[in-house]
Structures are given as structure tokens and as C-alpha cells.
Amino acid sequence: MYGLLRYRLADATNYYLIMAKTLKLLDGLCWFLSPIALIFFFLSFLLLVIYSQEHPNLVRRLEAEGYVAQGDISHIYDDGDLYVEFIDFEGKQRSEIIDMTYYSDAVKNDIVAGAQRRVRYLYYSGEGVVLEDHFDAVRNYKKPLDALWVMFITSWIVIVIRPDWLYFGFTDEISLLGDSFQPEAQNTPTA
């Protein structure tokens, strides 16, 4: 009985030592990563703000300023994107590439080279050429921002654990003067 209790106490002590070393290692890692995490936190926040508005702005521009034309699909690339040629509203021949990330597999499989499709485009820009018949898929598309969210949350956790670099450059006056600093004695009346 005593041997079993001693064995379990030894296990608990070993577990405690392993956890203590692991936490010390994680603390050192967070201290090392804290300057980088501070940069990544601001960078990921900025990119999240920009990228979360990029696609909705494109859809608004396509709805407000977009033109519709009949296009010929000349080539389908290996990644599924389409090379389309069409005549714009001024009568000029244009060639653009349609990004197919917005569309379902059924739409992608339905398209063959040489087919004609209606496209919506922006006159002054090569970006934003989409299939008009499937514009709802473009409108409802949500750009995946998972990697940016992971970077944002991870850097925030590192900053919360080790905020040392947030106070870089902040010192109090006493530590600047060192040990030679002696506070002035208050003038108190003596009797």
C-alpha cells in the first residue's frame, strides 16, 4: 500500500516537473515571439479590414458601373479560370480572364471551350469580369480569411501572455537615475 502511494506521488511530482518545464518553455517562446506578434497583430488587423471590404466593393462596382456583353470562351486554364473574348460597349475587342473561385463545381463543369456566355465587366478595369448568368454566386461569395484570423488571434494571445514589448521605451524616472537617486526629504516642522 505504501509503495503504491509513493509511486503515485512520484508520478505526480514528475507530472508537475514536466508541466513546469513545458510552461517555462512556452513562456520563453512567447517572450521571443512578442516583438513579432506585435507587428503581426497590427498587420493582420489592417489586412482583415482591407480584405473584408475588397469583395463587397467589387460587387457594388459591378452592380453600379458594370456592362454586360456576349463573350466567347476561348480557353479554360488548368486551374479552371476562363479566357474570354468579347466586344465592349465602344465596339472594341477585349480579352479578359474570369476567376472561377466564385462558382460551384456544377457551373465549372458546365462550361466548355468555344461556348458563348454573357459576361459582366468594368470598362476601365481588367478586374471583376464575371459570368452574368451566375452573378448571384459572385454576390454571395464570402472570401476566406481563416489564415488572417488565425494570425490575428495567435498574435493577440502572445501579446496577452507576454506584453513586454508593449511597454518598450516606457521607464520610470527612478530606474533611469539608478541607485544614486535619493528622494528629497519633506519639509516637516520640528518642535
Describe it for me?
By secondary structure, the chain is of the alpha+beta class. Helices cover 50% and strands 16% of the residues. The chain has a five-stranded antiparallel sheet, with no helix packed on it. A hairpin with a 5-residue loop joins strand 1 (67-76) and strand 2 (82-87). The longest helix has 64 residues, at 2-65. The model has no long low-confidence stretch (mean pLDDT 81).
Summarize the structure.
This protein has 191 residues and is α+β, with helices and mostly antiparallel strands. It is built from five helices and five strands.
Query: Any low-confidence stretches, pLDDT <50, length ≥5?
Result: none
Strand order of the largest sheet: 3-2-1-4-5
DSSP helical segment count = 5
Q: How would you characterize the largest beta sheet?
A: 5 strands, antiparallel
Please give the CATH architecture of the domain at 65-139: Beta Barrel
Helix content: 40-55%
